Fold this protein.
Amino acid sequence: MSLLKDRLKEARTEAKLTQQALGDRVGVPQSTIGALETGEHKTARNITEIAAVLGDDALWLSSGMGSKRTDGTTNYIDHGIDPHFLALAQKLSLLPDEKLKAVSILLGIKL
């Protein structure tokens, strides 16, 4: 199984992004992306946002498990979807039904 550093570099390269561009889109310094790609950092608090920018599944990016792409082919940034919104949507999708209902009531929207 590959390591986070290898999966991240592969995904970033496929997305045709520099470390700086990925960091800018995620809201972290280039040095954070670089440290992840060299293995200096073994995990990332913002893995969901990084995966969203790259159009990859956060579980795959963080652990190598599951499917790589969230939708088969699309880099969400190319479609104008804010990575923070996508990260929030991915987190909401993991909530159990009763918690999702509570969030829906709190926000006053149907989820």
Q: What stands out?
A: The radius of gyration is 15 Å. DSSP finds seven helices and no strands in the chain. The chain has a mean pLDDT of 82.
